[in-house]
Automatic annotation (TrEMBL):
InterPro entries: EgtA_Actinobacteria, GCL_bact_plant, GCS2, Gln_synth/guanido_kin_cat_dom. The gene is egtA. Its EC number is 6.3.2.2. PANTHER family: GLUTAMATE--CYSTEINE LIGASE, CHLOROPLASTIC. Belongs to the glutamate--cysteine ligase type 2 family. EgtA subfamily. The lineage of its organism: Bacteria, Bacillati, Actinomycetota, Actinomycetes, Micrococcales. GO terms for molecular function: ATP binding; glutamate-cysteine ligase activity. This is Glutamate--cysteine ligase EgtA. It comes from Pedococcus sp. KACC 23699.
Length: 439
């Protein structure tokens, strides 16, 4: 992709085969082709080139995942072949979005790029309505919730990428359960924003990461998993955290592109070449750095291998040429547009940055509290009150009533997720999941 428009298209569709992302480099050095053998320094340079593009703030992409439900039996899953047929029929959504399928059969709609969040929300409403109609024709629904509250994790997507990830996470007792949950039982709302010009990169990455705990607390809707109350506000965020700091922790924001490159080099390789020999006894999975400096019985690494490594790293803010904010639980239609609009407003409206930055400076490291307690945590509750008040007059008019509701909930330490978990406890996961899939 050689044009800005093409780069924006890639930015709004991270669910397409991730190794193929072609964000343009910010360096003048040529980006190596996929089959090019690569060494340590060139790999580091490549990752830094791909991390952040020189693109002005403004364009927005939104991704929304939901759980596919069989209405006659919510405890079962639609056959994956049937989901594939639906996705194929929806190759051209009316507002330009794309439909893709996740490991557990979750269905994702990714918007086309839009000049502002208001137009992105209008387009997503059209595209998601089209998806719901197609699923309904099969007797299936689409439940927007951060976790599957009823069914146990089960990988149904046969793609080799997901099979490799499943094998990798299952090989360690530390990540086995978290990996299966993350892949097959969670659903996210993602907001993709431009990084700005180079002199803005550090501030924008820092602001996005500092917003992370607040966004997790505000959006958390994943207390239930596989029929039981986990006791967590966002079991989805807990699952990501359980994959370990190298795989899913925030990156150092002082020099984000360089920090991203170091993260890629240090993390164990998930997508191991099929002809690679097992790692020597006692060493555990090989890091990308190990592979680049001493391949041993593995094939020589290529630029494509480096790109694939990036697709297996899941920090709350991922650098893909743009900023991919990944720390939001999926939410019902009543709420997710407002949360997406708030995320964009807090990031992109400079007039409110002084208030927002002061508020989130006190909660930047409250990841555990956000996932466990949500806005029940006093510091996160105070930050939410300040940030919501700052945004109320500048969010798009269409979401203002929902933002006002969120503001009232936050004042008492509640959020959409607390309303959802109350309903799950009262009526049970099967009833709630089936009902939510009709909305």
């Amino acid at each position: 992709m050689s044009t800005t428009a093409a780069r924006h298209s890639a930015a709004s569709h991270p669910s397409r085969p991730e190794g193929g992302t072609q964000a343009r480099p910010t360096s003048t050095k040529a980006v190596p082709g996929d089959s090019t053998p690569i060494g340590l320094e060139d790999a580091r340079e490549l990752v830094q080139q791909l991390a952040l593009d020189d693109l002005p703030v403004g364009t927005v992409g939104v991704e929304l995942e939901g759980h596919a439900i069989v209405w006659r039996d919510p405890s079962s899953r639609p056959p994956f072949e049937g989901l594939e047929e639906v996705a194929a029929r929806l190759a051209d959504l009316p507002a330009g979005g794309r439909t893709t399928l996740e490991p557990g059969g979750q269905v994702e709609v990714s918007s086309a790029p839009h000049p502002d969040i208001g137009s992105a929300l209008v387009a997503m409403a059209q595209d998601t309505a089209h998806l719901r109609a197609a699923l309904a024709g099969e007797g299936w629904g689409w439940a927007l919730l951060g976790s599957d509250p009823l069914r146990p994790p089960q990988r149904v997507n046969p793609a080799e990428r997901y099979a490799a990830m499943e094998r990798f996470f299952a090989s360690s007792g530390d990540t086995r359960d978290h990996g299966a949950t993350m892949m097959c039982s969670t659903a996210a709302l993602q907001v993709n924003l431009q990084p700005g010009h180079p002199d803005q990169w550090t501030d924008r990455v820092r602001r996005a990461q500092r917003l992370g705990p607040l966004l997790t607390a505000l959006s958390g809707s994943s207390a239930y998993l596989a029929g039981r109350d986990t006791g967590w506000h966002s079991a989805r965020q807990r699952a990501w955290t359980g994959l370990g700091e190298l795989r899913a922790g925030p990156i150092d924001d002082h020099d984000p592109a360089r920090a991203w490159a170091e993260r890629a080099l240090e993390a164990p390789v998930v997508l191991v070449p099929p002809e690679a020999a097992p790692a020597p006894d006692g060493r555990g999975p090989r890091s990308l750095r190990d592979w680049l400096t001493d391949p041993g019985e593995w094939p020589v690494a290529t630029a494509a291998d480096v790109r694939r490594q990036l697709t297996t790293l899941f920090p709350p803010v991922r650098l893909r040429g743009w900023l991919e904010l990944r720390c939001l639980d999926s939410l019902p239609d009543r709420w997710w547009p407002a949360v997406a609009a708030l995320t964009t407003t807090w990031m992109d409206v400079e007039a409110i940055h002084p208030d927002v930055d002061r508020a989130i400076a006190t909660t930047a490291d409250r990841w555990h509290a956000a996932a466990s307690d949500g806005l029940g945590d006093a510091s996160l509750r105070r930050a939410a009150a300040t940030c919501l008040e700052a945004a109320l007059s500048v969010v798009p008019e269409g979401v203002r009533p929902a933002v006002e509701e969120l503001t009232e909930l936050a004042r008492t330490g509640r959020s959409p997720g607390t309303l959802i978990v109350d309903d799950l406890r009262r009526r049970g996961p099967a009833v709630v999941l089936e009902e939510m899939s009709h909305v």
